[in-house]
Amino acid sequence: MDVRVNPGGISISLPKPPRPMPWVEALSQALHVPQSHVRHLLRQGAVRVRGSAPGHLEMWDRPTQVWIDEKLHPVDVAPATLPPVQVFYNDSSLLVVDKPANLLVHSDGSGAPTLDACVQRFLNEEGAGRAYHVHRLDRGTTGCVLYAKHGLMLRAMDAELAAGRVRRTYLAVACGARIRPGVVSAPIGRDRHVSGRYRVSRTGKAAHTHVDVLDEAIQGGVRWTLVRLRLETGRRHQIRVHLSAMGAPVVGDTLYGGAPHPALPPGQLALHAARLQFCHPYTGEDVEVHAPLPPAWEALVAAVGLSLDCLKRE
């Protein structure tokens, strides 16, 4: 299946199906969106097959060109100075970029620059597309962020994320108690006493984090740990809350008890979205993207006696 994003919509070249099927079922399967959404598009007159709206009884039984209306022309972005975006993966419908520290993913109303704006500027230069982030990172966290370029792909990737088929792997430097490898299963809810803070709570939502200890060191009388973490669920601040609850908060994470470190720029956390893995809904390709560690990590691990050699061997 070939998908092209244009300023006025999406052009899709469908191959011959294994069996004839109605258009609602055909587009739902091909685009990985619910049949209810396909019906909505058909009612809106947003779908054209070989140049005309498909009838309810019409069948998909041969190679076909489909057009779906969606406004994807370039749009203005905030005039604030935006950093260039570093792209790790790019195709007609998906984009994976690197989020630097101290950059919001989306606007908080303050007018500060955002990663969304940086990506939209990049898509404007491509000529078409919308910057729809599929997931988010906290302001002080760095690494991979996945974007959809149009609404159909956003719906498809939202479903993949909800089903746990988007694998997100992080690296962190934590300080405090000994961290034991395994799966942390502790529900997370809002902290009623501190705005914007979360905590382990029996009444919270289920949260599961896979933890692997890569290196440990005792420096300055405290324990420092390099950990790899994989999210099974995606609760807000999940890794930060779980490590804090273990008595080993992320370095730099003052909201959850972590101390700042002079090797890290102010506001940066020692938490990095290092790897993103997913199966592309349209092509079936297994995509794996890696984000290199920020430069400050080299100085941080050296200062606390940790080593990154285990990562270099992978």
What does this structure look like?
A hairpin with a 6-residue loop joins β17 and β18 (286-290). The protein has 3 domains: 2-69, Structural Genomics Hypothetical 15.5 Kd Protein In mrcA-pckA Intergenic Region, Chain A (Roll); 86-162, Pseudouridine synthase, CATH 3.30.2350.10; 167-312, 2-Layer Sandwich (Pseudouridine synthase), CATH 3.30.2350. The protein is elongated and about 75 Å long. With 314 residues, the chain is α+β, with helices and mostly antiparallel strands. The protein contains 7 helices and 18 strands. The longest helix is centred in the middle third of the chain and has 12 residues, at 115-126. Strands 7, 8, 9, 10, 11, 12, 15, 16, 17 and 18 form a 10-stranded mixed β-sheet that branches. The chain has a 4-stranded antiparallel β-sheet with strand order 1-2-6-4, with no helix packed on it. Strands 3-5 form a two-stranded antiparallel sheet. One of its GO terms (biological process) is enzyme-directed rRNA pseudouridine synthesis. This is RNA pseudouridylate synthase. Belongs to the pseudouridine synthase RluA family. It catalyses: a uridine in RNA = a pseudouridine in RNA. Pfam families: PseudoU_synth_2.
Give a short summary of the structure.
With 314 residues, the chain is α+β, with helices and mostly antiparallel strands.
| CA-based gyration radius | 22 Å
Low-confidence stretches: none
Structural class category: alpha+beta
Give the helix level as a range of percent.
10-25%
Taken in chain order, the helices and strands follow as EEEHHEEEEEHEEHEEEEEEHEEHH
- CATH fold-level assignment of the largest domain: Pseudouridine synthase
From the 3D coordinates, which CATH architecture of the largest domain would you assign?
2-Layer Sandwich
CATH class of the largest domain: Alpha Beta
Query: Superfamily at the CATH H level of the largest domain?
Result: Pseudouridine synthase
Principal-axis shape equals elongated
**Number of separate domains:** 3
Largest sheet: 10 strands, mixed
Rounded average pLDDT: 94
User: What is the percentage of strand-forming residues?
Assistant: 25-35%
Give a count of the beta strands, DSSP E runs of length 2 or more: 18
Distance between the termini: 34 Å
Helix count from the secondary structure assignment: 7
GO molecular function: catalytic activity, acting on RNA; pseudouridine synthase activity; RNA binding
InterPro entries: PsdUridine_synth_cat_dom_sf, PsdUridine_synth_RsuA/RluA, RluA_PseudoU_synthase
Family: Belongs to the pseudouridine synthase RluA family.
Pfam families: PseudoU_synth_2 (PF00849)
